[in-house]
Design a protein that fits this description.
alpha/beta, TIM Barrel, eight-stranded parallel sheet, four-stranded antiparallel sheet, 13 helices, 12 strands, about 35% helix, about 10% strand, binds NADP nicotinamide-adenine-dinucleotide phosphate, AKR, NADP, Aldo/ket_reductase_CS, oxidoreductase
Length: about 400
């Protein structure tokens, strides 16, 4: 039987407002995406060159000559890209709310997926976040801190509460549906064409939405099938066909997979008519998956990291890693911020999960740069330790 260990989806498993950062602390044009080496620049365009930084200034704090909607958008060769600018402006919304009040300051690092959809590089993870009042306070703290992306899944059994909370909170923050990015995932028990279509509709109705921003196949294996069973391959192929048809119907803006190895992706690409836009996998300095990252870059599949902080455990070896602690202390940042910035600086998006307001706030404050040496050191720890479930045995 396919095992579903802790850290991944198991069907059995399952405010005080934070202080606002001072205006001057926002580095407006200073953060730049790392420039890939020349040889791979063409292949990795999506990952590196479409990262933009968006700052929305409240009217009253705007200084003379400053634009209210500032962003940097570069295309290959470093030229400005007016078409992308216009698209982003439209996608991310204008700087005023419907009743003409200025919006909160929000700084987001975003990446453009191969579907053309703009996705924030930092989203809130919600695995094991359960209970109506907890979810409400977590989403409220996250919106206040500047999160605009939320990651859930059918097996987290919190879609309804997240939908309820967003419905209530978005107007309070002067936000609309189009201002946020919602991801959900197909449960391993719902593989197959028809079941996938139904599962998607179920998630949509739980979240009380008319469309999702991203829908992923959660796991390459099928619930209750053995890992080596060939039906896994057939059924997840059928699920992908269903996701393609949902995508073509316009009910989801991007589709992808999760926990897919290079083998699973190669298999999918043999018959796919849409290349997955995202592969959400465990990715951190203790579990690098270099080959998978290279493969995804080559195919234009955005790599999204989960368990960046080592999952929900008493003591996380990642957060206790001496190299991480050393860099954090030198930069006067927290170990969590160093781990998250290590990923986002490579163009990899992250989904830190927290129910603690100050953690939620600090996890999105990634307005600093690690040096190339820091990144190399963290990427060269030589540890290969998985903290979540392992899909490599799934046929
Ligand atoms: N696709 C998949 O199969 C899959 C698998 C696993 C996860 N995910 C997604 O990725 C998200 C994140 O992964 P994860 O849930 O495994 O956990 P994680 O984000 O790696 O770690 C969460 C743990 O870190 C703690 N934490 C958060 N911020 C912190 C900070 N600034 N300082 C110290 N500790 C901090 C949290 O405790 P506090 O609450 O006390 O802050 C919690 O115990 C999930 O919620 C889910 O959305 C997907």
């Amino acid at each position: 039987m396919t095992t579903l260990p802790a850290g991944g989806p198991s069907l059995d498993e399952e405010p005080t407002l934070p202080p606002r950062a001072p205006f001057r602390n926002f580095p407006r044009y200073t953060l730049r995406p790392p420039r890939p080496p020349r040889a791979s620049r063409r292949r990795t365009r999506m990952q590196y060159c479409d990262i933009v930084f968006v700052v929305v200034f409240p009217e009253k704090r705007r200084k003379k000559g400053e634009t209210s909607f500032a962003f940097m958008c570069r295309k290959r060769g470093g030229q400005r890209n007016p078409a992308a600018r216009a698209r982003l402006r439209h996608q991310l919304g204008t700087h005023r709310t419907a009743d003409r009040r200025p919006r909160e300051i929000v700084m987001q690092q975003v990446t453009t997926l191969a579907s053309g959809v703009c996705m924030p590089l930092v989203g809130l993870g919600t695995y094991k976040t359960r209970g109506k009042s907890l979810i409400y306070s977590v989403i409220k703290a996250a919106l206040q801190a500047g999160y605009r992306a939320f990651d859930t899944a059918a097996v987290y059994r919190n879609e309804t509460e997240i939908g309820d909370s967003l419905k209530q909170l978005l107007p309070e923050f002067g936000l609309e549906r189009k201002d946020i990015f919602i991801t959900s995932k197909l449960s391993p028990q719902d593989h197959g064409f028809e079941k996938s279509l139904q599962a998607f509709e179920w998630s949509l109705s739980n979240l009380q939405l008319t469309y999702l921003d991203l829908y992923l196949i959660h796991w390459p294996g099928v619930q209750k099938l053995k890992s080596e069973d060939a039906q896994n391959q057939y059924l997840r192929g059928q699920s992908w066909k269903a996701l393609e048809s949902i995508y073509k119907s316009g009910k989801v803006r991007a589709i992808g997979v999760s926990n897919y190895t290079v083998g699973h992706l190669e298999d999918l690409l043999k018959t796919a008519t849409v290349v997955p836009h995202v592969n959400q996998v465990e990715y951190h300095p203790h579990y690098l998956q270099k080959d998978l990252k290279k493969f995804c870059d080559l195919k234009g599949i955005h790599l999204q990291a989960y368990s960046s902080l080592g999952t929900t455990v008493e003591v996380s070896p990642l957060l206790q890693d001496s190299k991480v602690l050393c860099i954090a202390s030198r930069l006067s940042r927290s170990p969590a911020q160093v781990l998250l910035r290590w990923a986002t600086q490579q163009g990899v998006s992250v989904l830190p999960k927290s129910t603690n307001t100050s953690h939620i706030t600090e996890n999105i404050q990634l307005d600093f740069d690690l040096t190339a040496e820091d990144i190399a050191e963290l990427s060269g720890l030589g540890i290969s330790q998985k903290y979540a479930w392992d899909p490599s045995a799934i046929h």
